[in-house]
Design a protein that fits this description.
The chain contains four helices and six strands. It has 185 residues and is of the alpha+beta class. Strand 5 and strand 6 form a beta hairpin. Helix 1 packs parallel to helix 4. The longest helix is centred in the C-terminal third of the chain and has 38 residues. The model has no long low-confidence stretch (mean pLDDT 88).
Length: 185
């Protein structure tokens, strides 16, 4: 009975890790990555549309992102959306496509980015711990209702702790990887 709760908790933790990876991919670390522009919404004919749905996004070289809209009339809207975003990069519009040149990060900017990364990491750890807490509460309710034994309760709490430790360790590994990427010159 409690095993279902533990399994669904693991699935939720896995989703939390995937969300963290997606969030960290949007933090620019001096290298061009199409994910940097994933969150940009463009006002396309009056409707907010994700950039990747109205343009082809490619990385022809390590420090450049090319954005080629399928409709050339969207160029100005895309340019406006990039300028309004928190990307901090000025788009170069040549009339057919937009080129984003990723500048070399300064030491100060690297430290700022690391703070953002640490905040995301801490939010993920909190999410994983909250999942553990909620599951443990559910398991305790099952024990109170005499649907599981005290031994099952103890076993379930131990399993949840092992699971939590494993996912926290994964989050720490993700942080080390991103830290290395951000600090790389």
């Amino acid at each position: 009975m409690y095993k279902d709760l533990v399994m669904s908790s693991e699935e939720t933790m896995r989703k939390s890790i995937n969300f963290l990876k997606e969030e960290l991919a949007t933090i620019r670390a001096g290298k061009a990555n199409p994910k940097l522009v994933d969150k940009i919404q463009v006002s396309y004919y009056g409707t907010m549309t994700p950039l990747n749905q109205i343009a082809n996004i490619s990385v022809p070289e390590p420090r450049a992102i090319l954005i080629q809209p399928w409709d050339a009339r969207a160029l100005k809207d895309i340019e406006r959306a990039i300028l309004a975003s928190d990307l901090g990069i000025n788009p170069n519009n040549d009339g057919k496509l937009i080129r984003l040149i990723i500048p070399v990060l300064t030491e100060e900017r690297r430290k700022e980015l690391l703070k953002v990364v640490k905040k995301e990491i801490e939010n993920s750890k909190i999410a994983v711990r909250n999942i553990r807490r909620d599951t443990n509460e559910e398991i305790k309710k099952l024990e109170k209702l005499s649907e599981i034994t005290k031994d099952d309760l103890k076993r379930a709490e131990e399993e949840m702790q092992k699971l939590t430790d494993r996912y926290i360790s994964m989050i720490d590994d993700i942080y080390k990887e991103k830290e290395k990427e951000v600090l790389e010159v």
